[in-house]
């Protein structure tokens, strides 16, 4: 006899579902919250778990994450009654997790519980492909990611505004999606790129407009705050919104209402704002790119996402994940060699996960079809590698020195490599006030080599 755990706080639905499940000759156990479900799961195994999306103590996705992380070998089906989350759930559910929409009938349940289809099978924490999608979208098991998952889980339960800080390509938009997935919000996630809103359309974009409010306003339009009602508004590139446009945003945040351009009726705002920026908090404060009052309203809960070079443990996992996605899309079985994987781990990835994803894609396009393996270019460096690894001020200075030298228009044809090298060494030394240890580090040579070179130059005088 199959055993089923039904996790749902809707008593009426649970009662009906239990009757059908029993009629189908299965044992059924009920839990009305994540906590109760975890108690059952700690003492018993189930063939199947039917999981409601919205539970009183969090999203069903939390429990899904727990089931996968704890390696619980049950089939899982997400159940939702809310039409607005139906599509989102369908998207989140993959080969390993099934989904059902309420109202359900005996045939639906029979199909779900007795089908041999792999659609509803969760193969433990890590499926055969070796990764777990946290909150339905995030890949990564490094300490930095685990800490962030905890923050996402905690903040998702509240309605606090979140500010995501991190370099380009670290996954800020993905984390915004994860917060939305993990919350109990029933509305949509709406994104807006703050750096790309034309100045004369800022009001219309944020608050919406009434028909005829201005030339070209041929129909009524909802603003992003209204579109994100009961959901999440993702303000990408927040600090790129010109300072003179920011009072518009402040007005909504202060009054918690919006009035359409050309309208008179104000509508209450009811959404969580998740904002993102590539700039550091220090830079935001120093360069005054964001009004302080907006910062404090939006950065109630700031989350800094670590660059990929600081969580190298995630590189193999992400690389395999991106390769798997491509293999699945194109029905291929391309693999990656161990040395290539090691090279990926050693690289610094200044463009972070986006750059890694594109590198895998490129290597997939170039794949050797006879040996079924990825083909990577000789160097993984992008034009941005050198610059972005220059993190300290001294690094920047030496890059400038090197740039000046490299772009120097008056390098005479026939200038020797030795002469150029000498000039580069002296310029680098100048840029770090003669500190030989720093200069050697920046030049990528040992201090001993630097002393040797300087000695040679002195003796050649
Ligand atoms: N943890 C992750 N797991 C899987 N894919 C990820 C993860 N983080 C990022 N990605 C992928 O990497 C790419 C870049 O992510 P995203 O657009 O979220 O970065 P971002 O920080 O918002 O970048 P930008 O600041 O340039 O807008 C996307 O294709 C995204 O799907």
- Using the 3D structure, state the CATH architecture of the largest domain: 3-Layer(aba) Sandwich
End-to-end separation? 93 Å
Output the CATH class name of the largest domain: Alpha Beta
- Might you state the CATH topology name of the largest domain? Rossmann fold
Write a structural description:
- Keywords: ATP-binding, DNA-binding, Nucleotide-binding, Phosphoprotein, Transcription, Transcription regulation.
- It comes from Pseudoalteromonas caenipelagi.
- One of its GO terms (molecular function) is ATP binding.
- The structure is a single chain.
- With 461 residues, the chain is of the alpha/beta class.
- It folds into 4 domains: 3-120, 3-Layer(aba) Sandwich (Rossmann fold); 143-304, 3-Layer(aba) Sandwich (Rossmann fold), CATH 3.40.50.300; 308-365, Helicase, Ruva Protein, domain 3 (Orthogonal Bundle), CATH 1.10.8.60; 390-459, no CATH class.
- 45% of the residues lie in helices and 14% in strands.
- The chain contains 20 helices and 16 strands.
- It has helices at residues 11-23, 34-43, 60-69, 83-92, 106-114, 143-156, 172-182, 202-207, 224-227, 246-255, 281-287, 292-298, 314-330, 338-346, 352-365, 385-389, 393-406, 417-431, 436-443, 447-459, and strands spanning 3-7, 27-31, 48-52, 54-55, 58-59, 75-80, 97-101, 162-165, 189-193, 208-209, 221-222, 232-236, 257-259, 266-268, 272-277, 301-304.
- The strands form 5 sheets. It has a 5-stranded parallel beta sheet with strand order 2-1-3-6-7, sandwiched between helices. A 5-stranded parallel beta sheet has the order 9-12-15-8-16. It has a two-stranded antiparallel ribbon with strand order 4-5.
- Helix 1 links the parallel strand 1 (3-7) and strand 2 (27-31).
- Helix 13 packs across helix 15 (352-365).
- The longest helix has 17 residues, at 314-330.
- The chain is globular and about 95 Å long.
- The protein starts with a strand and ends with a helix.
- The model is unreliable at 116-128 and 386-393 (pLDDT under 50).
- Adenosine-5'-triphosphate binds next to helix 7 and helix 15.
């Amino acid at each position: 006899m199959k055993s089923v755990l039904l996790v749902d706080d809707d008593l009426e639905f649970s009662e009906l579902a239990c009757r059908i499940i029993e009629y189908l000759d299965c044992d059924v156990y009920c839990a009305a919250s994540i906590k109760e479900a975890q108690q059952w799961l700690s003492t018993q195994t189930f063939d199947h778990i039917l999981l409601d999306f919205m539970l009183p103590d969090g999203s069903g996705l939390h429990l899904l994450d727990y089931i996968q992380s704890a390696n619980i070998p049950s089939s899982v089906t997400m159940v939702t009654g809310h039409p607005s989350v139906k599509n989102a759930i369908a998207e989140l559910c993959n080969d390993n997790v099934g989904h059902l929409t309420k109202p359900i009938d005996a045939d639906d349940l029979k199909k779900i519980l007795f089908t041999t289809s792999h659609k509803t099978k969760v193969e433990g924490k890590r499926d055969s492909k070796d990764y777990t999608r946290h909150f339905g979208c995030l890949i990564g098991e490094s300490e930095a990611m685990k800490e962030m998952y905890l923050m996402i889980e905690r903040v998702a339960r509240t309605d606090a505004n979140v500010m995501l800080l991190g370099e380009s390509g670290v996954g800020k938009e993905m984390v915004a999606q994860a917060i939305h997935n993990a919350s109990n919000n029933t509305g949509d996630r709406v994104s807006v790129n703050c750096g790309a809103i034309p100045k004369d359309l800022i009001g219309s974009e944020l608050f919406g407009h009434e028909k005829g409010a201005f030339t070209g306003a041929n129909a009524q339009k909802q603003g992003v705050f209204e579109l994100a009602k009961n959901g999440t508004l993702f303000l990408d590139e927040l600090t790129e919104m010109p300072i003179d446009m920011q009072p518009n945003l402040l007005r909504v945040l202060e009054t918690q209402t919006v009035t359409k351009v050309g309208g008179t009726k104000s509508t209450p705002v009811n959404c969580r704002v998740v904002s993102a920026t590539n700039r550091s908090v220090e830079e935001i404060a120093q360069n005054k790119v964001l009004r302080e009052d907006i910062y404090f309203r939006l950065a109630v809960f700031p989350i800094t996402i670590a660059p990929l070079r600081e969580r190298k443990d995630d590189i193999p996992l992400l690389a395999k994940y991106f390769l798997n996605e491509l293999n699945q899309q194109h029905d291929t079985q391309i693999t990656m060699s161990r040395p290539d994987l090691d090279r990926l781990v050693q690289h610094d990835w200044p463009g972070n996960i986006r750059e890694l994803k594109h590198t895998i894609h490129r290597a997939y396009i170039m794949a050797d079809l006879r040996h079924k393996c990825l083909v990577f270019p000789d160097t993984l460096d992008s034009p941005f590698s050198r610059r972005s690894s220059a993190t300290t001020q001294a690094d920047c200075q030496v890059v400038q020195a090197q740039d000046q030298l490299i772009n120097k228009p008056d390098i005479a044809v026939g200038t020797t490599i030795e002469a150029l090298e000498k000039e580069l060494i002296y310029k680098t030394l100048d840029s770090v006030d003669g500190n030989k240890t720093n200069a050697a580090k920046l030049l990528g040579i040992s201090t001993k080599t630097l002393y040797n070179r300087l000695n040679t130059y002195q003796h050649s005088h």
